[in-house]
Every structure is written in structure tokens, then in C-alpha cells.
Amino acid sequence: MHRSGIIGDTVQSLGFLSRLPIPRNWLDGESSALKASLRAFPLAGAILGLLAGLALLIADFLHLPVLACSFIAVGVLIAMTGALHEDGLGDTADGFFGAATAGQRLEIMKDSRIGTFAALALVIVTALKATLLATIMQRTGAGYAVMALVGVEAASRTAMLVLWYALPSARPGGLADNLGAPQWETLVCALAIGFGILAITIVPAGGWTALLKALIFTAALLYGFAKLCMAKIGGQTGDTLGATQQLCALAVLIGLVSAL
């Protein structure tokens, strides 16, 4: 049974966004419960970022190279989510750039096989995230890198809700379509939570300049990706929401590193 309140919504969100061993009786399988919990996506992302940050600290304690520490943290994130968002990024890359019509693109995005565009997108984005995280470790220390992970994962899951709210569904019957777009009040609440977490975690390392750059880069990327989604498939799908998380996480990291 779904427990009301922000804590219950966070647990419900973690049950959807991750493969963490959450007791089944803490979750509600009804789609209405998930839709009601969307405001807690940033909090769920922050928890995942913190857990990945703990893995980074352990690796740093073992005196592993900073790049190895950052790859371990990224790997833990992938393991915790079951590559949910990475799968969306790969499917989106294959679909958007592997076909000529919107219908063909949507069919490719449903295919579980990995094509050339998906492989390249996953390698490039994952490598960039790990490299930027390693740079933060080098310039500010492991503690601030953990804080950055928390902020990045919270903000990027907020960005998912923005795209979900702003664009129409491109695939009738899909998960995002069945749930329906977030309510305006839900989006505003998620934005407030996501911004608060981002500010608390980014400003100590890079100051207000880092926060401003992170917001500008993320907003620009989100706007451009939304335009691309409309041009390629006429809206959003669950895959494009996953791609949004990956790309906006990258944008926040770029903003922070550029300010250090």
C-alpha cells in the first residue's frame, strides 16, 4: 500500500526509478500511485546520487585513481537503476538517427537491440560523465564530488518531468502516455525540490557562478532536445525521458566544471 506524504512518494519513486531492494508492501502497483509520487523524483535521484557517492568515497579511500573512482560511481548508478535511463538514451539515439520517418523511428526505439548510434551515444556520454566527475575530484576533492553527484541526479530527474509536461505523447499506449503528463502543481513542487538540492550541493564547490552555469546549460540542452523530439517523433516517449536524464546530468556537470 502506497504511503502518503513526501517520504512515501520518495519510496514509490525509488521503486520505479531503481532496482533497490524496497519491500513490496511499501509500494503501490497502481499507476495512480506512481503519478502521485512524481514530485519526489528529485529526492529519489538525490538518494541514488548519494549511494553512488559513497561508492566513490570507498574507491578514493582505497587510493584508486580519480578516473577509476568516477567510473565506479557511474557504474554503481547504472547498476542501481538497471540502466533504465541509459537504455532510453540508446534507443533514442538509434531511433532519431537511424530512420527517415517518425513511425520508423518509433519502431526502432521499441527494438531492444543496440545499433551503432546507441553504442556511440552510450560510450560518449558515460565517458564524459566519468571524466567530468574525475575533474571535480581533482579540483575540489572527493567530498565535493559526492555533493555534485547528489545535485546532478536530483536535477536531471527534475528535467525529465519538465520534458514530460511540456511535450505531447508520441506513442499512444506507452508507459508515459498511460500515466499522463505531470500536473502543473506536481511539476512546480518538483522544480522547487530539485533547485533546492542543486543549490545546496553545487554552490559550496563552485559558488553561485557554477549554479548559474549549470542552470543555463541544462535549460539550453533541454530546450534543444525538446525541439529535436518534436522534429523527429512529434513528442516524447519513455525513452526520450531517459535520454533527458542522461543528457541533463551531463549538462549540470559541464556547468559545474566550467566554473571551477
Give a verbal description of the structure.
It is a multi-pass membrane protein. There is one protein chain. The chain has about 260 residues and is mainly alpha-helical. The chain has one domain. Helix 5 crosses helix 11. It is globular and about 50 Å long.
Low-pLDDT runs of 5+ residues are none
Spatial separation of the terminal alpha carbons: 45 Å
Strand count, sense and barrel status of the largest sheet are:
none
Structural class: mainly alpha
Relative helix content: over 70%
In what range is the share of β-strand residues? under 5%
Nearest-integer average pLDDT: 90
Number of strands: 0
Number of helices: 11
Provide the number of structural domains.
1
SSE pattern, N- to C-terminal: HHHHHHHHHHH
Radius of gyration: 18 Å
Morphology call:
globular
Assembly type: single chain
SSE layout and pairings?
Layout: H1 6-17, H2 31-36, H3 41-61, H4 66-81, H5 84-97, H6 102-110, H7 116-140, H8 142-166, H9 175-179, H10 184-233, H11 238-259
Helix pairs in contact: 1-3, 3-4, 3-8, 3-10, 4-7, 5-6, 5-7, 5-11, 7-8, 7-11, 8-10, 8-11, 10-11
Which properties best describe this structure?
cobalamin 5'-phosphate synthase activity; CobS; transmembrane; 79% helix; mainly alpha; 0% strand; 260 residues; 11 helices; single chain; transmembrane helix; magnesium
Give a quick rundown of the structure:
The protein is mostly helical and 260 residues long. It is 79% helix and 0% strand.
